[in-house]
C-alpha cells in the first residue's frame, strides 16, 4: 500500500518575514571574514528541524484516507523553545483539524471543526532540551496524547472528523506549521525551534522526510544543543522598542535610561551586536565588533562615539559578558570586570531617549536589516532587565535559531 507523500515548500503569508525597505546607514565592519573560533557546524542527517515556517519551507505529508489502516503517530521531540507548533493535521477538509503544540513550555492540544475549538494544555515540561517520546493515538471518539509512556490528555473528536475518517479524501500533516492556505488562527507563535527523530506517521511511508534531510543541511539539527540564540553570520532580528519595555524598571527610574546585557561567543570577530535604527532605517546607535582593529566600537549618529580593545579571549571560544548603560550624561560599557565611561552630550541623550519611544524606531540584535554587518555566533540578551525572546521579533531571518546553539558555543559558563 502506497500513501501519497510530498514536501511542499510554500510561502505562508501569515508567517512570512517582513522585509524592511531601504538600506540603513552603513556601520563599517571589516570585510575579511576569517573564522576566529573554529568548530564543527555540521548537523545530524537523521534529525529534522521544525522551525523553518518563517521562510516558507514546511514539510507536508499527504495520505489517502482510504489507504490508511491506522491514524496513530509517534516521534521523539527535543526543544528549548517555550512556544510553537509541533505538527498540524487536517482530514477530509481544512475545517477538521488537529494541532499539537508547545505553549508555556507544556504540550497544548487543539482540535477544531469550523468555528468550534477545544484547547487543552497539560503534562510535564517539554521545553527542557531533553528528548521526549510523544505518541498520538486514535481512540474511539477521541485522540490521546502520551509523553514518555504517560497519558497526558485525551480530547474528543467532532462528528465531522469521525465521518471524514471513513471518506475518500486526504489526511495532511504539516510539521512545524499549518497546512498551506489554512485560515486557522492560532493563539501562539508558530515557529518551534525544535528537532524530531524516530518518527512514524500513521504507520505509512515517510521516506520523503529522509530525502529532504539528505538534500538540505538547513533542515537538519545539531546532535546536541545548549541555550542561546544562534546567528549564522548572515541574519539578524529586529524589535519595536515597545516590545522590550519593562514596566517595573520604568516605574523605578527617576528618568529614562537604557541597559543592555549581552552574553555571547563569536565564531567571527565582527558584526553588529546591538543597534537602534530611526524610523528612516538609519543606524542611530550601535555596538559592534570591528575585525581589523579587534575593537568593540560604539557608533552614535553615524560617527564613532568610542572604542575599546576586545579581550584576548574573544576568539578563544570563551564566553564574553558585556553590559551597556546609556544614562543622562554618560555611556558606560563593562566587558568582563573592566568598566569604561564616556561623556554623553545632553542633546545626544535626549535624541536617544526620544528615539526609544518614537513609532517606527527599531532595535536590532545580531546585525542590521538585509543581513548587513551580521554577527556569527551564539548570543543571549537582556534589555531593560528583561530576557529577550527572539521569537517576539517583528523582523526575524529564518536561519536564526531562537532558543538553541551548538554546544561548542555554550555561553552559560560563569553567567
From TrEMBL:
Matching SUPFAM superfamilies: Concanavalin A-like lectins/glucanases
Keywords from the UniProt entry: Disulfide bond, Glycoprotein, Secreted, Signal
Domain Laminin G, first and last residues per copy: 45-221, 233-405
Cysteine pairings via disulfide bonds: 378-405
Main location: secreted
UniProt keyword annotation of Secreted present: yes
Signal peptide location: 1-22
Keyword Glycoprotein part of the UniProt annotation: yes
PANTHER family recorded: LAMININ G-LIKE DOMAIN-CONTAINING PROTEIN, VITAMIN K-DEPENDENT PROTEIN S-LIKE
Gene3D superfamilies to which the protein is assigned, alphabetical: 2.60.120.200
Entry's localization field: Secreted
Domain of life: Eukaryota
Pfam family, one: Laminin_G_1
A cellular-component GO term for this protein: extracellular region
InterPro entries for the chain: ConA-like_dom_sf (IPR013320), GAS-SHBG-PROS (IPR051145), Laminin_G (IPR001791)
CDD domains: LamG (cd00110)
Organism of derivation: Megalops atlanticus (Tarpon)
Name this polypeptide is given: Laminin G domain-containing protein
Amino acid at each position: 500500500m502506497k500513501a501519497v507523500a510530498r514536501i511542499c515548500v510554500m510561502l505562508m503569508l501569515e508567517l512570512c518575514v517582513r522585509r524592511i525597505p531601504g538600506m540603513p546607514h552603513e556601520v563599517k565592519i571589516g570585510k575579511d571574514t576569517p573564522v576566529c573560533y573554529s568548530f564543527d557546524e555540521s548537523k545530524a542527517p537523521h534529525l529534522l528541524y521544525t522551525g523553518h515556517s518563517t521562510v516558507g519551507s514546511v514539510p507536508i505529508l499527504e495520505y489517502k484516507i482510504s489507504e490508511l489502516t491506522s491514524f496513530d503517530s509517534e516521534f521523539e521531540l527535543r526543544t528549548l523553545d517555550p512556544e510553537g507548533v509541533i505538527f498540524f493535521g487536517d482530514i477530509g477538509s481544512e475545517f477538521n483539524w488537529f494541532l499539537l503544540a508547545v505553549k508555556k513550555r507544556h504540550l497544548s492540544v487543539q482540535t477544531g471543526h469550523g468555528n468550534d475549538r477545544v484547547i487543552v494544555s497539560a503534562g510535564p515540561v517539554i521545553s527542557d532540551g531533553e528528548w521526549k517520546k510523544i505518541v498520538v493515538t486514535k481512540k474511539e471518539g477521541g485522540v490521546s496524547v502520551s509523553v514518555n509512556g504517560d497519558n497526558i490528555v485525551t480530547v474528543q473528536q467532532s462528528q465531522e472528523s469521525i465521518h471524514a475518517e471513513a471518506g475518500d479524501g486526504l489526511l495532511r500533516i504539516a510539521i512545524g506549521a499549518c497546512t498551506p492556505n489554512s485560515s486557522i488562527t492560532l493563539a501562539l507563535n508558530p515557529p518551534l525551534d525544535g528537532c524530531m527523530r524516530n518518527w512514524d506517521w500513521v504507520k505509512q511511508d515517510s521516506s520523503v522526510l529522509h530525502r529532504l534531510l539528505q538534500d538540505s543541511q538547513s533542515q537538519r539539527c545539531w546532535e546536541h544543543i545548549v541555550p542561546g540564540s544562534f546567528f549564522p553570520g548572515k541574519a539578524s532580528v529586529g524589535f519595536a522598542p515597545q516590545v522590550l519595555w519593562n514596566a517595573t524598571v520604568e516605574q523605578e527610574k527617576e528618568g529614562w535610561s537604557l541597559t543592555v546585557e549581552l552574553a555571547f561567543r563569536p565564531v567571527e570577530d565582527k558584526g553588529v551586536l546591538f543597534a537602534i535604527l530611526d524610523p528612516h532605517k538609519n543606524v542611530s546607535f550601535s555596538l559592534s565588533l570591528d575585525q581589523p582593529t579587534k575593537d568593540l566600537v560604539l557608533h552614535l549618529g553615524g560617527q564613532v562615539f568610542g572604542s575599546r580593545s576586545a579581550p584576548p579571549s574573544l576568539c578563544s571560544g570563551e564566553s564574553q559578558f558585556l553590559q551597556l548603560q546609556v544614562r543622562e550624561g554618560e555611556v558606560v560599557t563593562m566587558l568582563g570586570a573592566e568598566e569604561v565611561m564616556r561623556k554623553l552630550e545632553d542633546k545626544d541623550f535626549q535624541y536617544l531617549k526620544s528615539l526609544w519611544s518614537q513609532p517606527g524606531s527599531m532595535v536590532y540584535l545580531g546585525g542590521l536589516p538585509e543581513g548587513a554587518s551580521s554577527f556569527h555566533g551564539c548570543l543571549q540578551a537582556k534589555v531593560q532587565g528583561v530576557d529577550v525572546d527572539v521569537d517576539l521579533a517583528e523582523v526575524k531571518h529564518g536561519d536564526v535559531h531562537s532558543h538553541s546553539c551548538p554546544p561548542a558555543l555554550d555561553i552559560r559558563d560563569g553567567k
